[in-house]
Amino acid sequence: MRHAMASSRSPIPRRAGQRGVSLVELMVGVVLGLVVTLVVAQVMSFAEKQKRVTTGGSDAQVNGALALYTLQRELQMAGYGLTADREALGCAIKARFGNGGTSFSWSLAPVIITDGSNGAPDQIDILSASRPFSVPLLVTVDHARTGDRFVVRSGIGASEGDMMIAVPQGHDPVTNWCTAFTVSSLAGTNQLVHASGTSGPWNQDAGSSIMPATGYPAGSSLVNAGQLINRSFGISAAQALRQRTLNTATAATDEQELFPQIVNLQAMYGKDTNGDGVVDSYDNTTPTTNAGWRQVLAVRLALVARSASYDKNEVTTAAPLWDVGTSASVAGASACGSSQCLTLKVDALADWKHYRYTVFDVVAPLRNVVWSGA
């Protein structure tokens, strides 16, 4: 029985020609796999590079557009509530916060451009008022230098806590300047009291004064700012659009970075030099006289936004250009094709050639100056 069962088993036949993979075939397969892997890696690398370029360009577009809109909006409000009397334009303002506190010097002008040297970013200071309307109040009684109240024709529109700017006739920065003060109380219908010391808080110290020696004679005027709005825009060390705002309650400056990757800011005054109501010249020379300020009707500015992505190749070989056209004279512009251009310097930035740049520009009319008339 045991023999019969053993004899019934038959050997498994071998397949003819059966063999393994040769070394040559294995090496060919490995090479083909490496080639495919290399191609896929190159495709993915190119796609990732294009994605970074697209994303970086999109970031620059968004940051630049928002930064430009912010500046344009602020410039359109420049001078609001302060420029109703164009005779006051350019008046040097002196102010002091609290009893023995910090002294300030401003100019009664909608915007001041501080030029950056050798193509460095400019700084723009914008002045306006918080008061919805501001009709200058006429001073009817001589105000001595150490006086404690202004007598005006009518105190309508003035409130306790308002910040006022006293403007003399024929102002000059040496002997007959403007002075900012706080209305500490109202007496009757036409007396604006400005108590000395910290009760102001923008009032003269007891026993001294920041007002001109001749005070403010009858015929002077008071501009009601409500609360003075003083904002400064520039480029921070971190390459972002920076805003500084004066806090009139504490005299401190609040600073914040608004939009990143803004690497240059250039601005110019738009001036009407022939009195026809049309801007015919652009430059960054700040006026020093009332007549000069009357010519300033607009501000032209350019922002340079940079992509956030570093490229290992040099993708920018020349500084970006600001096309300023040919319709008006522009200081420092040179021919570029059929137009005029200004060079916007970015070569002070580290590895500047390894980034891409976009230029944004706008002409912002100073409508509060234009609407106030000649």
Mean pLDDT: 87
How many separate structural domains?
2
Distance between the termini: 132 Å
Show unreliable segments: none
Proportion of helical residues: 10-25%
Tell the overall outline.
Answer: elongated
User: Secondary-structure element sequence?
Assistant: HHEEEEEEEEEEEEEEEEHEEEEEEH
Instruction: Specify the number of helices.
Output: 4
Strand proportion, as a percent range, falls in 25-35%
Question: What's the Cα radius of gyration?
Answer: 35 Å
Task: Give a written overview of the molecule.
The chain has 374 residues and is an alpha+beta fold. The protein folds into 2 domains: 51-88 and 116-126 and 236-374, no CATH class; 131-226, Elongation Factor Tu (Ef-tu), domain 3. It is built from 4 helices and 22 strands. The chain has helices at residues 2-7, 23-77, 290-294, 367-371, and strands at residues 92-96, 103-107, 111-114, 123-129, 137-138, 149-151, 163-167, 178-182, 185-187, 191-193, 221-226, 228-235, 240-247, 252-260, 262-271, 281-283, 296-306, 321-323, 329-330, 334-336, 339-343, 357-365. It has a 6-stranded mixed beta sheet with strand order 2-1-8-7-11-5, with no helix packed on it. A hairpin with a 3-residue loop joins strand 9 (185-187) and strand 10 (191-193). It is elongated.
